[in-house]
Amino acid sequence: MQGGAGPRVGTSKGGVRELVWGYLESSGLAERPRPVHGRIPNFKGSHQACCSIKELDAFSRASVIKVDPDKPLEGVRLATLQARKTLLVPTPRLRSGLFNKIVPPTGATKEILRICSTSQGIKEYSVPVGLDGKIRVDLVVVGSVAVSEKGWRIGKGEGYADMEYAMMVSMGAVKEETPVVTIVHDCQVLDIAEELLDDHDLTVDYILTPTRTIKTNCKRPKPQGIIWHKVSYEMLAKIPILKSLRYKEKQTGKDVTLQDEHPDLANANKSAVLNEKAMPGNTRPQAAKGSAQLGQQLTKILLGETADFEEKVNGAVCIS
């Protein structure tokens, strides 16, 4: 943004996402699948960051680990299988349930385990886990577009990681103290304004980058379950497992009134969506050079401490 015209960069989640996606692409840090826009971005050094999980006590103690299917988390899925732990991966867009359990063939070689950790392996070596399965997840690993050292996370904008966690709470599969880890590049660790967060947003306890392991000591509560008044009929149709969970919770006497059944909430949500779309969606930084201070530089940009967006990003640096 030039001269401070228009909304400040970083005043919406969409602004933060576009900044990060654009920087990863223009700085040469992005890895396939490309472009990273609209995705949990893969990045140079993702495997190195994933390997750090083996140093966490939370990983050592865990028997059952849920890892999202995103490309930059492939190394965590491999480490989980190599350690002979149970690996759960959410079904694509939750269309056919919540989890798939990855079951490598007996006597699987290192190469077969590597394949099992990929999108191909998830398709070929997975077994669905039903709602009635008494699953207890010991560690949750999610991807992020941006995350703060306080543990505040921004995903790609579709809400699946938040919904998956809320579903796990409803199923009794996780507790408040169940650790949540995210894997990102150093340049994705930014200051995020707390007002951008909502009560359904998932926070993280550990951030693993190619150069750092950050324990967030996050104090913000994680989602306490599905917030039914934020669920629409459309979501219920797209995610069949929600219908089953809604029925179960209704049987226990919980209020499962949907967003569409609250006219005021439905109208408020439409306004929020329109406001989000009105935010700048194509502001992308120019290529940058060098090392170490990108986080602070991008933070200043996100917080609106500079009026000249392009000038600041061109002066930023990053570790690759």
- The structural class is alpha/beta
Order of helices and strands: HHHEHEEHHEEEEHEEEHHHHH
Residue fraction in strands = 5-15%
Radius of gyration: 20 Å
- State the helix count: 12
Shape: globular
* Nearest-integer average pLDDT: 81
How are the strands ordered across the major sheet?
A: 4-3-2-1-5-8-9-10
Q: Which runs of at least 5 residues are low in confidence (pLDDT < 50)?
A: 1-9, 276-320
- Number of strand segments: 10
The largest β sheet comes out as: 8 strands, mixed
Q: What's the end-to-end separation, in Å? A: 26 Å
Helix content: 25-40%
Could you characterize what this model shows?
There is one protein chain. This protein is α/β, with parallel strands linked by helices. 34% of the residues lie in helices and 11% in strands. It has 12 helices and 10 strands. The strands form 2 sheets. It has an 8-stranded mixed β-sheet with strand order 4-3-2-1-5-8-9-10. Strands 6-7 form a two-stranded antiparallel sheet. Strand 6 and strand 7 form a beta hairpin. Helix 4 packs across helix 5. The longest helix is centred in the C-terminal third of the chain and has 16 residues. The radius of gyration is 20 Å and the shape is globular. It starts with 12 loop residues before the first helix and ends in a 6-residue tail after the last helix. The N terminus and C terminus are likely disordered.
Ordered list of secondary-structure elements with their pairings:
Layout: H1 13-26, H2 46-51, H3 57-61, E1 64-67, H4 74-82, E2 86-90, E3 99-102, H5 110-116, H6 119-124, E4 126-129, E5 139-143, E6 146-147, E7 153-154, H7 160-171, E8 180-183, E9 206-208, E10 213-215, H8 233-238, H9 240-251, H10 263-278, H11 294-302, H12 309-314
Parallel strand pairs: 1-2, 1-5, 5-8, 8-9
Antiparallel strand pairs: 2-3, 3-4, 6-7, 9-10
